Amino acid sequence: LVGMIVTWLVDANTTSRFWITSTWLLRCFFWPISLLAIGNFILDLSIQNLSNYFTDKLVSVYFMMWWLMPARLLTSATHRFLWDPIEKSTQRKIPNLIRMFSSSTIFLVAIFGIIAFIFDQKLTSLLATGGLFAMVIGLAIQSNISNIFSGIVVNIERPYSVGDWIKIEGLDDTEVVDITWRTLRLRTWDGHSISMPNGRAAESTTINYSRGNVRIDVEICLSPTLVPVFIQEQLQKIANSVEGIDQVETPVVLYAGTRLDWGHNVNVYEVRFWISDYTTGLGYRTRLWNQIWEDLNDQGISMIAQKAVETTDIDNRLKDSMLASKMIKGDA
What is the rounded average pLDDT of the residues 131-149? Predict the structure, then answer.
């Protein structure tokens, strides 16, 4: 009894990993001794003062305690060495449903042992009924259990944290607002809140923009009559002149060829730069675009592309030329 009181006082006044382990081991030593001493004392009194019927009942209770006590020690071990460390590392409270489920499973095994070995009853029908009941409950809360365990995995692995900007498959870029054991809470650029089950988030492909540097590509379309080498040089100078754009790496300008864009033939150029903070990307884009427009406009370079020749215009010209040739032949 003194040893049990000491372990309780130590647990109440320390969070040291060493003492948490030590006091649990001390309980494994003191609890059986206490049960042995108290049980023998009560049984001795019962034999001397009570009938055999009550003594047999006390003996059954005494034997049951030898099943329930290890179950209690085991549930204490799961809390101390599994759930509490997870809470400490993730800074989030484990759902009571998970704690109750693990404790109930351990005590259920102990109860089955009591029924089988103390009361000498067969467990076949009980296990069948319990299995059917567990299956029905499991199917009913399958999605919630999946989301909770996915939340535990996410909080342990930490592929993203609160404040990170991520892109989940099927969604636009979003900021992580909160990560609970059941849902992932996000916020879009527009300020809309999204609540996504952890199970779906864990199964989706996720891009984290807040881990490492992010590459930004700005596409510029200009007239194909302009010499690409010259334009590349001008864009490179403009990119280098934008303050802060070269903090991570030097910007790069690429010529991506010619294409038909909204009815215009255009030469496509890409200004590529890198940033360490994803949220600053929009500001750098805006500054870069403004600088490009100012500098190209000052040099007399128009950003209006050459209009493409439409197919109908070509057909009309072919018809006109064919008609003209026929008229010439007819005059001849």
Answer: 70
Looking at the DSSP bridge assignments, the partners of residue 216 are 273
Query: What are 204's two structure tokens?
Result: 């989706």
Q: What does the radius of gyration of the chain's CA atoms come to, in whole angstroms? A: 38
- Count of alpha carbons within 13 angstroms of residue 162, beta-carbon side: 10
**Among 47-51, 60-64, 114-118, 138-142, which stretch is predicted with the lowest mean pLDDT?**
138-142
* Neighbour count for residue 144 (Cβ, 10 Å): 15
Q: How far apart are CA 253 and CA 239, in angstroms?
A: 8
Query: Residue 74 and residue 107: Cα distance in Å, rounded?
Result: 9
Residue carrying structure tokens 């382990």: 21
Q: At residue 236, what is the residue type? A: Q
Exposed, middle or buried by CB within 10 Å (0-12, 13-18, 19+), for 139? exposed
**Closest to 11 measured CA to CA, from 65, 84, 104:** 84
What residues pair up with 166 in beta bridges, in sequence order?
174, 208
Q: With pLDDT > 90 as the criterion, what percentage of the chain qualifies?
A: 37
Query: Which structure tokens are listed for 130?
Result: 């319990």
pLDDT at 309 exceeding the cut of 50: no
**Distance of alpha carbon 141 from alpha carbon 136, whole angstroms:** 9
Residue 112: predicted pLDDT: 87
Query: 30-79, pLDDT tens digit by residue?
Result: 999 999 999 999 999 999 988 899 999 999 999 999 999 999 999 999 99
Give yes or no for a contact between 150 and 198, defined as CB atoms under 8 angstroms apart.
yes
What residues does 270 pair with on adjacent strands? 219, 254
